[in-house]
Design goal:
The protein is mainly alpha-helical. The protein is built from six helices and two strands.
């Protein structure tokens, strides 16, 4: 056990949209400490989303993030020699973190040419309720629903 709770580091809002959530997303997107590259990828992706949908790119990104955010997850718990998948609610911070990681991870696996195009494609798909990241959320919810009989084992 820890002696004391870890301090939360304050994240500064991004320069263009003045939004803390954007910075957290870019921090997840960043590889090898290249934050400038990550910001340019994100901003290019938002511009591509705006040009393809003729709507505000940031609003579509927010909608996509909201559509991908899970409400429950399953956690393994050993009870009397058997391992059960127990559905449990998720803290708000972890929900957002999972949604961002899924969106970025599945965007990296897409088949477009550049990362901004991949990210834009995944954002548009997620905002419509389609795409791999949205499917991941649905799978997690389906697993929790299938195992809700074991929810009395929750700790």
């Amino acid at each position: 056990m820890r002696r004391r709770k870890a301090k939360k580091i304050a994240v500064l809002p991004d320069p263009k949209f003045n939004d803390v959530v954007v910075t957290k997303f870019v921090n997840n997107l960043m590889l090898q400490g290249k934050k400038g590259v990550a910001f340019s990828i994100f901003y290019d992706a938002i511009e591509k989303v705006a040009s393809k949908t003729n709507e505000d790119g940031l609003e579509i990104w927010r909608k996509a993030l909201e559509n991908v955010t899970p409400a429950v997850e399953v956690r393994s718990r050993r009870v009397g020699g058997a391992t059960f998948q127990i559905p449990s609610p998720i803290r708000e911070e972890r929900r957002n973190s999972m949604a961002m990681k899924w969106l970025i991870g599945y965007a990296r696996g897409r088949n477009e040419k550049s990362m901004p195009e991949k990210l834009a494609g995944e954002i548009i798909a997620a905002s419509k309720g389609e795409g791999a990241a949205y499917k991941k959320k649905e799978d997690v919810h389906r697993m929790a629903e299938a195992n809700k009989a074991f929810s009395h084992f929750r700790f």
